[in-house]
Amino acid sequence: MQKPEVDIYQKDVTDLALFVKVSQGNVLKWDINRIVSSLLKEVGIDEALALNIAISVERIIKDSGIEFITGPLIREIVNTELIKRGLEKERKKYTRLGMPIHDVHRLITSHNKENANVPHGPEATNLSLAESIKKQYALLKIFSPEVALAHERGDVHLHDMGFIDRPYCSGNSIEYVKKFGLSLPNALSISKPAKQADVLILHLIKFSAALQGVFAGAIGWDAVNLFLAPYLVGKSDKEIYQIAQMLVFEFAQQAVARGGQSIFSDLNLYWEIPKHFMGVEAIGPGGKFTGNTYEDYLPEAQRFVLALIKVYLDGDGMGRPFFFPKPQIHITERLFQTEGYKDFLYRAAELSSVRGNSYYVFDRGDTAKISECCRLSFKLDESDLEDAKTPWKMRYSAMQNVTLNLPRIAYEAGGSDAKLFELISERLEIAAKAHVAKRGFITSLLNLGHGGPLGLLTMDKDGESYYRLHKATYLMGMLGLNELVQYHTGEEIHESNSALKLGLRVIAHMSRECDRLSERYNMRFVLEQTPAESTAYRMAKLDLIHYPAQTGKIVKGDLARGEVYYTNSTYLNVSTPISPIDRVKKEGMFHPMIHAGSLTHIWLGEAKPDPEGIASFVVKTFRNTTNDQIAFSPEFTSCLDCGRVERGIN
Amino acid sequence: MHIKGIIETSFVDWDGKIVSTIFLPDCNFRCGFCHNHKLVLDPESFDSISPARMFRYWTKNKDFLDGICITGGEPTLHKELPELCRDIKELGLKVKLDTNGTNPEVLRQLIGEKLLDYIAMDIKAPLEEDSYSDLTNVNLNDTFDMIKESIRIIINSGVDYEFRTTVIREKHSKEDIEAIAIALKGVRRYVLQKFQPKEVMDEEYKVYTSYNDEEMEEIAEVVKKYINEVKWRGN
């Protein structure tokens, strides 16, 4: 170690009979010089001040009379000295990230109940510990103090900060795996493009698992049945069913992956050939063009999607529903011109009625979407549709999601319309700053290339890196529009037309502001319905502390038990019985302004309706509303001991 | 006429259709297993729903609704029923009527005026007076003939229909259901409904049980010997 210019050895420090346990795993003799040099290196204060602090620290330690001390404790004492001298900025730079031993013990020994998708096990606790530190790192190092404070106060919520070094979620193309095989950077072995359907599925699953290592959220796959079709020519129904089973079970059972979680995966499915894939040359076994277009494989694509639906209907080995991968059934105008569509819709509807798996994504007119996550989808623009001719290039991602706490804005506006809209704009500015920071950080990681932490995303097989940064979107989510409207007008969205209108004005304003910010920052800011169950709880709890009088009037849930929440995104009150027709129509009015995906849930409860009624509802929603996506939710009870599944809450 | 309840959107009251279901009060039966018994015994405990509000909702949502299901209670007890059906038909919506079949004249009138698109008639027990009285808890006398008359009217109406029985293990043996099927032999559709003991008129029924899914399947198989289209609900 280089000695500082100030000769600290003039002091009689070597007589301190103290040993330091350092974090690299060693026990060293006390050396005050280490404090000085670390302050110089990490904080950048001048040497005299560093020495002054080091001497104070040494005195405290000496006075304590202890024989062993740890590096982290010395650091905390240094931090105290920094604060005493008013050096708060410097303390933040010097601080150590971690968790109290009590919390670590609790984490390792008790189940994390906040995320239902995370099982309890060593992998899961590794994930939680890592997330905790990365979150602290993000708040101190990546985001500005203004943005970090806005999150900590609960004005906005920065999602997935535990995954600060990864983009949020992604839409991918099987064509990439078909064309280039499984050839990941730094892999010990490489697979050439698959020649058989089952091998292709194995490649797909492994590639998904690899992608989950570099994305925080969901991994969506576009037009799965269509792109698999060239591999299914000549296969019997039994073989096709087995391949469909393999696909669903392999995805569903990847609970050995990151943090013991299943891969959050979406399968986008079509009965018809969507317009943007018409005339596109098909890739087949060995990653070679087959000489045919995808229209030629429609029969195989249709047989496969029906087999998939049957797999979902049959359920797992215990007859339970699958949660991942989620089947996203796209409805385009061409569906209704494609033979057999009524039977297809009937079967998809039967799945809705029995299991609830089917999500119906409405691609009206010339729009096309790839669904990713709970409700996130990418609406393909003109250049994306151009990509459809070379479908392996169809890779999209949202970099980050920032959600606005809308009810709080209503409290602060105190009934003033002008103030309400002004505050929304202000919060969106903060969200935009958060996005700029995240983009900067991810860009710096991508720039480290193949050897960097996001090496997988920089692999270049087709003239550009896997992660197409220029295509990334930046999500602006919203929480509790219903409560904003309720506080501002005295009525919930479903209670009057004027309440509904205010809700629509708020979202329209947010949408316009996103456009303005997009232009200003040259980034694509889009609104998204945040799937924000834990955020809905967090923000409601924070507001009960900071705005108790206002929050108490409108918060949903059970105040006495502290189980409170705000209504998700632009949803109507979920606990009030609202007719499904009203719900799809009214919620659907918001959807055209929310470009990164929206969803309406239709609650079925114990009833198991005739599929024809559900199919008819789907078609009518497509034809008569502007709703983007719907799913039907039946009610199940699954016995944890015997695995039996029964309808209803028992 | 007072309308005592509405389900604005229902997927389960008319197979394959999206409907609004309205509940009319009063009934001339006292079935122990009745799950709408408050409508029968204490209709005043429900607020009446303004027809104007109902029709406003239906008009606004004609683009989704296929029809209206009229249930109860026993709707045919209300003399205003034909007028209600007429108003619904004028709106361009279909009408489904749930009935216990005790008013064949009303049925004849509604069918004659082409006011019905679907009829669901309950068959409470084997078509013998004693069994029927036991399930309905009323002295039937002439009414029993009315029920048989209603069956004949419905079969010959040209209107789509179903007969249906709520099957209670303690009240219906498998042979009872077969006996009903024999009596109904040749009808278009027969539906078996699993009994749900959660909400009943007679406390005694709370401990009664339904057949399980496998048994319902078996009973349905037997019934299929006599009737083409047989299904069971409530799984």
Features:
heterodimer, A: 650 residues, alpha/beta, Anaerobic Ribonucleotide-triphosphate Reductase Large Chain, eleven-stranded mixed beta sheet, three-stranded mixed beta sheet, 23 helices, 22 strands, 45% helix, globular, disordered N terminus, B: 235 residues, TIM Barrel, eight-stranded mixed beta sheet, 8 helices, 8 strands, 32% helix
Notes on the protein architecture:
The complex is a heterodimer of chains A (650) and B (235). In chain A, strand 10, helix 13 (341-354) and strand 11 form a beta-alpha-beta unit. In chain A, the strands form 6 sheets. In chain A, strands 4, 5, 6, 7, 10, 11, 14, 15, 16, 19 and 20 form an 11-stranded mixed sheet that branches. In chain A, strands 2-1-3 form a 3-stranded mixed sheet. Chain A has a two-stranded antiparallel ribbon with strand order 8-9. Chain A is 45% helix and 15% strand. By secondary structure, chain A is of the alpha/beta class. The longest helix of chain A has 30 residues, at 417-446. By secondary structure, chain B is α/β, with parallel strands linked by helices. Chain B has a single domain (5-169), classed as Aldolase class I (TIM Barrel), CATH 3.20.20.70. The longest helix of chain B has 13 residues, at 143-155. The radius of gyration of chain B is 17 Å and the shape is globular. The chains are: A alpha/beta (650), B alpha/beta (235).
